[in-house]
Design goal:
mainly alpha, single chain, 6 helices, globular, 141 residues, two-stranded antiparallel sheet
Length: 141
C-alpha cells in the first residue's frame, strides 16, 4: 500500500464519527493496540524533543531498504497520534517518507482539535521521522 492509500483508509475510519469525543476515543483505542516498546528502547536518545508528553521513537532500516518505526508515549492521545504516524510512514523507503504529503492530519480535523502543545508535539514527531528518513537516505548513498 502506498502512503496515500493508508492516509485515505485513515480518513475513511475517522469519517465514521461526527463527534470529536468519538474521534479521541478512536485515537486512544489505536494507541492501546500498539505494541509497547521494550524498556531498552526507552532512552533519552529516543525521546522526542518538543513533545509535552514523553514520546520515544526508534527507526531501523530493513535489508530491503524500508524504514521501520516503533514508538510509545506515556499519554493516551499522543500514543494514538504516533500510532497513526507510524501506520502511514513505517515500512516505506526513505525517499517515500521524505516526499510524503501528510494530508490526513488536516482531513480528519486532527490539527484543529489539538492543543497548541500537542500540535507542537505532532510536528516534532513528524520532524524526527523525516530526520531518520534523511539519515537513512544519506547512508544508502
Amino acid at each position: 500500500m502506498t502512503i496515500n492509500d493508508i492516509q485515505d483508509d485513515i480518513i475513511a475510519e475517522f469519517s465514521d464519527f461526527d463527534d470529536w469525543m468519538d474521534k479521541y476515543q478512536l485515537l486512544i483505542d489505536l494507541g492501546n493496540e500498539q505494541q509497547p516498546l521494550p524498556a531498552s528502547a526507552k532512552t533519552e536518545q529516543n525521546l522526542i524533543d518538543g513533545c509535552q508528553s514523553r514520546v520515544w521513537l526508534t527507526a531501523d532500516l530493513t535489508p530491503e531498504g524500508f524504514v521501520h518505526f516503533e514508538a510509545e508515549s506515556d499519554a493516551l492521545i499522543v500514543k494514538g497520534i504516533v500510532t497513526l504516524l507510524i501506520r502511514v510512514l513505517s515500512d516505506h523507503t526513505p525517499q517515500e517518507i521524505l516526499d510524503a504529503d501528510l494530508y490526513f492530519i488536516e482531513r480528519i480535523g486532527l490539527r484543529e482539535h489539538l492543543s497548541p502543545t500537542r500540535s507542537n508535539g505532532l510536528l516534532a514527531m513528524l520532524k524526527q521521522m523525516k530526520m531518520y528518513a534523511l539519515a537513512f537516505k544519506a547512508k544508502q548513498g
